[in-house]
Each structure stands twice: as structure tokens, then as C-alpha cells.
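Continuing the batch. This is chain 6 of the set; chains 1 through 5 are on the previous pages. Same settings as before, nothing changed between runs. Recording input and output for traceability.
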Amino acid sequence: MAAHESYYRGGDYYRFNGDDVTLILQENYDCIGDCLEEPDFPRFNVLMYLEGKRFPELERLVAERVSEAVLLRRASG
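Output for chain 6:
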């Protein structure tokens, strides 16, 4: 997982690009608008985005190993 910086992602964030998955960790903060990136979820300071073919497997692993993790949204596409 590599560190990056982007105003779009609220400043510093971390990204992993694999063959069949992309994982992004970022703060729940939009530095351009000085507001929450996900305003419907204000109690969550860190957001994790998962995309790719392995999403179901990774969703299950996160749920099993990170007791504080909460699935906020699932998008199809």
C-alpha cells in the first residue's frame, strides 16, 4: 500500500492496486469543501473503498478481522 496526496481524496491517502482489487484508505474529509467526504457517516473518521473482482472475499475478511468495521454502502457496477 502506497501513500499518496490528493485534494480529491482529502489530502493524504493510501492506495493499493492489485490485479483484481483496488483498496483506498482515506480520511472522511474533503479539504476542498472543508467538510466531510461522506456526510451521511460523520462518526467514521477513516473510509475504506474496495473495488474489483475480489470485493466479496475482501468484504468478508474485513468483517471477520476488524470488529469496528461497518459496511456503509455497496454499489454495483
